[in-house]
Amino acid sequence: MSTFPTFPTDCTSLLCKHLTTEIFETLKDKKTANGFTLEDAIRSGVENPDSGIGVYAGDLESYSLFASLFDPIIESYHGFSASDSHQSDLDPSHLDAPNPDPEGAYILSTRIRVGRNVANLPLGPAISMEQRNQVEQDVSTALGTLTGALSGSYYPLEGMSETVSRELIEDHFLFKAGDRFLESAGLNHDWPEGRGIYHNDDKTFLVWINEEDQLRIISMQPGGDILEVFTRLTTAISEIERSVPFSYSKHLGYTTSCPTNLGTAMRASVHIKLPKLSADMEHFKTICDRHHLQIRGIHGEHSKSEGGIYDISNKRRLGVTEVQCVQDMVDGVVELIAEEKGLQSTSSNRQ
Ligand code: ADP
Ligand code: DAR
Known about the structure:
Order of helices and strands: HHHHHEHEHHEEEHEEEHEEH
Bound molecules: adenosine-5'-diphosphate, D-arginine
CATH architecture of the largest domain: 2-Layer Sandwich
CATH superfamily of the largest domain: Glutamine synthetase/guanido kinase, catalytic domain
Shape: globular
Structural class: alpha+beta
Number of strands: 10
Largest sheet: 8 strands, antiparallel
C-alpha cells in the first residue's frame, strides 16, 4: 500500500481518528511473520468508512508490529494504555449474582460468551484454509470428549442439511457468513469450509468454530439465573482448555481479531422486557452508561429491538476481569428492573 487511504469527511471510526500520515509512512511496508500487512489490518475500515473501529489483527504479532496504530485505538476504546496489564478471574464464587428476576417477569434469557483463538496460530484474517480446517478438526475433537451436561454433537456448516439448518436457526444457534465488516477483514474466506456449531443435548451450551474468532464458547438458557449460566461457561472453558491452548498475553489478555474483544473477550447479556423504561430512551441510556452497559437489538450486533425487548450486556472487556464483566451486567439489570417496576406501579396508581 503506497498511498494514504482516502476517508469521507464524516468518517468517525477510530481508524480515521488515529491513522496519521506519519504512522502510515512508518508502518506501510511492514509485514508480520504470517505476511499480514498494514493494508490488511485497515482494509475493513477503508472499505467500510461507517465502521466504529475499522481495524482487525491478523495475528498476535500485529498488536506489537502495528502498535503505533493499535495502541491508541485500544486506549480510545477500552481506556487501557500500552503499559497496562490485564487480569483474568473466571471463578464464579467471586460473583454476587442472585437471580434479579426470579418470577421471570422481565428477563427472557441469559447468554454469556467468550471469544478464544488457538495459541501459536494466525487469527482469522491471516489464517490459511489448511490451518483453519485443522482448528475445526482439533476443536471438534476436543468437544467430542465433553461429558455430562456438556456432552452433545457437532454440526459442520459445510453440507449441513436443510432440516438441521432450520432447527439451528429456530434455536438462534446458527451463525451465517459475517457481515460486510468481517468480509472486508478476510474473516469469511473459504466460507462455509472449516466452520461449524457444537451444542449440548440440553441446548444450553454452544461452541461456534471459526466464526469471527476460532472459538466462541457460549452458555445460555431461558430466565435470569446468571450465576448458573456463568458457572456452566467457566466449567466448559477449563474443560476445552485441557486440550486446546488459547492465545493469551499478559498485556492484552485473550487475543482476538477485533480489538473490541481483547482481554476477557466476554459479552454477558440478557434479553429483557423494559416497555415503560424504554419509552424514555435518555433515562434508559443514562442507567446503562452508569453501569458500563451496551444496548443492542435482539437479533445480533446491528439489529433493532422488538416489542420493547432489548439485549443488555457489559461494554467493558479489557482491563476488567470476567467476574467484573458479569457483575457490571448484573448490577445494571437490577437497577433497570427496579426502575421498570417503579414506572409500572406509578402508572397503575394513576389508573
Ligand atoms: P456476540 O458478539 O455476543 O455473538 P451478537 O449480538 O452478534 O453478539 O449475538 C449473537 C446471537 O446471540 C444473536 O442471534 C443474538 O440474538 C443471540 N443472543 C445474544 N444475547 C442473547 C440472550 N441474552 N438471549 C438469547 N439470545 C441472545
Ligand atoms: N464492525 C466493526 C467491528 C465492531 C465490533 N464488533 C465485532 N467485532 N463483531 C467496526 O469497526 O465497527
